Amino acid sequence: MKYRSVGKSGLKISEISLGSWLTYGGTVENEIAKKCMAVAIEQGVNFIDSAEIYAKGDAEKVIAEFLAEGTVDRKDLVISSKVFWPMSEDMNRWGLGRKNIKNAIEGTLERLNLDYIDIYYMHRYDYMTPVKETIEVLDDLVRDGKIHYWGTSVWTAAQLERANAVAKELKAHKPIVEQPMYNMFSRHIELEIMSVAKTHGMGFTVWSPLGQGLLTGKYNDGIPEGSRGSRSESIKKYLTDENLLKIKKLGEIAKTLDITMGQLALAWILRRPEISAAIIGASKPEHVIENVKASDVTLTKDILEQIEEILVNEPEWPLTYKPNKYFLDKMR
Fold first, then answer.
1. Per residue in 144-154, pLDDT tens?
2. For residues 75 and 295, what is the distance between their CA atoms, to the nearest angstrom?
3. Beta strands of the chain (E only): which ranges?
4. What is the DSSP secondary structure assignment for residue 183, as one 8-state letter?
5. At what angle do helices 58-68 and 30-42 cross, to 10 degrees?
6. Could you tell me the sign of the dihedral formed by the alpha carbons of 281, 55, 122, 149, in that order?
7. Catalytic: 54?
8. What's the pLDDT at 231?
9. Whole-angstrom Cα distance, residue 119 to residue 127?
10. DSSP structural state of residue 23
11. Which superfamily does CATH assign the domain made up of 11-331 to?
12. 3-class secondary-structure state, position 308
């Protein structure tokens, strides 16, 4: 396993890291989830990512159960969580206002049974709360020792510029990392976000690096019963004949390199020095063992050119960066 700095901060994390979205505390049994975490750490993973909204807090509880077993020193791990999405019907239990962030971090620390977390992500941009208010409370949390760093998730280039400008004005701790979706079929951050984040010393911990399994080739012959694709409409919209043909061609490149399609997709992400880590999801320990090997794969210029000839997809803005219906309803 190789490790990278998170932007220009002193924090270092494993290139392949483990996430708990759509898996732990929900569709994956707790014992299997804990085995995945144990295997990941054995393989050199030191970063475990979560959020209070994942399984409504249950993902954090599973991580706490694993840590309580004492097989790893918590100080050797980088643990993150996120705040933004509503955890109840209460009008103040969502967003990035002072009250919600203060309540949310207390809930996260209680569920994780920890005194602090390493990275606290703002899980979307809050159009209804001044950025100054958000940064002030985050600065308080850093100074109180409840979080070590903070970051953003699915923020636009303009929003990152604003956050860094306000933090500088307040002489407050700046965000060190952005967490967007990024994979072979979702390349929007290459437009502006990468360069803006780099300018401000921010790294990237990207989610859905395998397109929720699409880029492993598991859907090449249809949707397996019981798979994530059988439950997720977001995957189905990518299951086009054009994309499946691209994946099959990419799979042929992977075979020539004696690696899996998933390892090729992860190594492609890690080709960018701006990336600090690719966050994988794993429902089985063997998935972890297979995916972490991507850290040892270096793609040559020739191979990267072959991949681009297959992908032929210019980066474009996704709808997730526009105020969604949830915000529009709140703002009326």
1. 999 999 999 99
2. 23
3. 3-5, 12-14, 16-19, 47-49, 78-83, 117-122, 147-152, 177-178, 203-206, 275-280
4. B
5. 60
6. negative
7. yes
8. 57
9. 22
10. S
11. NADP-dependent oxidoreductase domain (3.20.20.100)
12. helix
C-alpha triplet 320, 277, 228: angle, nearest 5°: 55
Q: Which two tokens stand for residue 79?
A: 């643990």
What are residue 203's DSSP bridge partners? 177
**If residue 137 lies in a helix (H) or strand (E), which one and from where to where?**
helix 131-143
User: 240 in helix, strand or coil?
Assistant: coil
* Cβ neighbours of 89 (radius 10 Å): 7
Flag whether pLDDT at 332 surpasses 60: no
Gap between the Cα atoms of 43 and 31, Å rounded: 18
Set 3, 24, 54, 120: catalytic member: 54
Nearest 5°: CA angle at 64, between 62 and 69?
100
Q: Tokens in use for 160?
A: 């990152």
Record the tokens describing residue 102, joined without a space.
Answer: 């203060």
Q: Which two tokens stand for residue 291?
A: 């995916």
Tokens representing residue 178 in the block = 């952005």
SS3 50: coil
* Length of the chain counted residue by residue: 332
In 3D space, the residue among 135, 41, 129, 33 whose CA is nearest the CA of residue 79 turns out to be 41
Helix, strand and coil content of the chain, in percent to the nearest 5, comes to 45, 15, 40
- pLDDT cut 90: percent of the chain above it: 84
Q: Are 281 and 214 in contact (CB under 8 A)?
A: no
Once rounded to an integer, what is the mean pLDDT over residues 262-271? 98
Strands 3-5 and 12-14: antiparallel
